[in-house]
Write a structure and sequence with these properties.
By secondary structure, this protein is an alpha+beta fold. It has 24 helices and eleven strands.
């Protein structure tokens, strides 16, 4: 479950491809070529296997003598099937979360490259062109300015003011390095960003490229694709305000192939454990306190490649790190792993964000702000963000946002464009103009609800229960010592009340969170009824 942008989707569509299903495992490392109507596998054990994503992309484009060749590939992280393994395309774009790179690695599939020269067709070209022209004009204006100008790193300051910018592995929700202007989106853009680039056919250009100066002693001329999630994971969460080392950690993840959010949050867990003396210099071979820079880079590379103590214990993410360290005798190590359902948390501290505490916890693929955008309900003051009232009303509001996000993802369009439509009805109209399939706003939102419910049923079949829809224990036991959420912890009874309200709003059993037969029938998911019994084996 991951979505990437860049040029791959466009090139695949020009080659006439809507979907690829890869079955089985190749007996040797290969890459798949889709060149218009030609599809074939090429052995690559001696040419590409073991190489980073950046070099793999360059070599394939050189092989085909086509700089527009779209390449999605895995690095050594995916090859060794790290649970954090990602898929990189267009160098700066990743299908990052949930270990999709490990799936390719399990199949010995190093890369898929696309070259398409065909045209693309829509059902109503004249009307679609008019609509597209209007939406592009809006997308070039104020509706998307925050992504184009400072970019998502602008959130460092705004989240910090709300007390929801996670620092030092979620020990606090504010950081003095942000407050004093040292580590902010303004500083990033003024001192480090050298270029802003866009995905294929994009009119926004949100990708901010930062470069380390040529006279830097360690990483001269290093270029990194930077957004707030990565400035959080290797920056605020690790207590690291050294920009070049943050950039280096990001490029290591993108090139060697793991999710940089999960990688940084897992590194922050290691810093936390080191600070508490639960892991030591003897274990790692070096110090790793909060605020580490060069040693954080060293840890990150070892973690990705599966080398040393860092790779052995942290190379598959924070959940597995907790399990492995506790087996080694490190008591309660898992407590310091900030994940939900095994997926590391994004850049939102949820103390004093009670609606999002529920939204992030029920998110289908684990801790994810891109599957559940309920943080907006708290940040904008829709509900009392410190309260536990209006459980059903909050549940309905969380559900609406989640259903729309499911639709946007099924469209395969960028969430940064969600503000360019006049209303949901206009987004539905775009779908109709492209596909020729008529829909109303009501019927389309029902499909978003169905997508979410079917995904939920998959999780139930794989043994997820109500207990998995729960934030890490740290939020219930440790309060911040400063900022707007000072002295606040989540209350179990209040949280469970809000969770039940969400379940009720969804038409699920209020106690178990399992969709009722009536709900499944309403959504056209009758085939699921009676098929929700967990399959064999342990929950992954």
């Amino acid at each position: 479950m991951a979505i990437s942008s860049g040029s791959v989707g466009a090139q695949a569509r020009r080659a006439g491809i809507n979907m690829i299903v890869c079955k089985g495992k190749s007996p040797e490392p290969v890459y798949l070529v889709i060149d218009d109507d030609d599809y074939y596998l090429v052995p690559c054990e001696k040419t590409l296997w073991g190489k980073g994503n950046f070099e793999t992309e360059e070599l394939l484009r050189e092989e085909f003598q086509d700089t527009r060749l779209a390449v999605m590939s895995i690095g050594p992280g995916g090859e060794r099937m790290s649970r954090m393994g990602c898929i990189t395309n267009d160098r700066n774009r990743q299908a990052g979360r949930t270990g999709m790179g490990a799936v390719m690695g399990s199949k010995n599939l190093k890369a898929i490259c696309f070259r398409g020269t065909k045209g693309t067709k829509v059902a109503y070209p004249v009307e679609f062109y008019k609509k597209a022209k209007k939406l592009i004009k809006i997308a070039n204006g104020p509706a998307t300015a925050k992504y184009r100008d400072l970019g998502t790193p602008a959130g460092l300051t705004s989240y910090n003011k709300l007390g929801m910018m996670p620092t030092h592995n979620y020990r606090e929700g504010t950081w003095d390095k942000i407050t004093n202007g040292e580590f902010t989106g303004d500083t990033l853009n003024e001192e480090w960003v050298v270029k802003k680039v866009a995905c294929s056919q994009c009119s926004i250009g949100c990708d901010h490229l930062a470069r380390v100066p040529k006279n830097h002693p360690d990483w001269p001329n290093l270029v990194a694709s930077v957004d707030i999630e990565l400035l959080y994971s290797f920056g605020t969460a690790c207590g690291n305000a050294d920009w070049p080392s943050v950039f280096k950690c990001i490029t290591l993840c993108d090139d060697l192939g793991i999710d940089a959010i999960s990688g940084g949050v897992t590194a922050a867990m290691a810093c936390d454990l080191f600070d508490l003396g639960l892991i030591t210099k003897k274990d790692l071979g070096y110090d790793l306190p909060f605020g580490s820079s060069k040693n954080l880079v060293r840890f990150t590379e070892e973690m990705i490649l599966g080398k040393g103590f860092a790779g052995e214990f942290f190379g598959d993410g924070s959940k597995q790190a907790g399990i492995r360290l506790e087996e080694k005798g490190v008591k309660n190590a898992g407590y310091h792993g900030m994940h939900i359902k095994g997926l590391e948390m994004p850049a939102f501290d949820i103390l004093g964000m009670n609606s999002f505490a529920v939204g992030e916890s029920v998110s289908i693929r684990g801790a994810c702000h891109l599957r559940n955008g309920a943080y907006g309900l708290d940040a904008k003051g829709t509900f009392d963000r410190f309260g536990y009232d209006k459980g059903l009303e909050r549940g309905k509001a969380i559900k609406i946002v989640e259903d729309i996000y499911a639709l946007i993802d099924s469209y395969i369009i960028c969430k940064f464009t969600r503000g360019i439509y006049e209303n949901d009805a206009e987004m539905v109209k775009v779908y109709e103009l492209v596909t020729g399939i008529p829909h109303t706003e009501e019927s389309m939102l029902l499909r978003g609800e169905a997508i979410l419910n079917l995904s939920k049923c998959f999780n139930i079949r794989e043994k997820w229960t109500r207990a998995d829809d729960h934030p890490p224990e740290r939020f219930f036991k440790e309060a911040h010592t400063k900022g707007p959420a000072k002295g606040v912890t989540l209350k179990e009874a209040g949280y469970q009340k809000l969770l039940s309200g969400y379940y009720e709003a969804r038409g699920w059993n209020k106690e178990t969170g399992i969709p009722t037969d009536d709900t499944l029938k309403k959504l056209g998911l009758d085939f699921v009824i009676g098929n929700l019994k967990p399959t064999g084996g342990k929950k992954k």
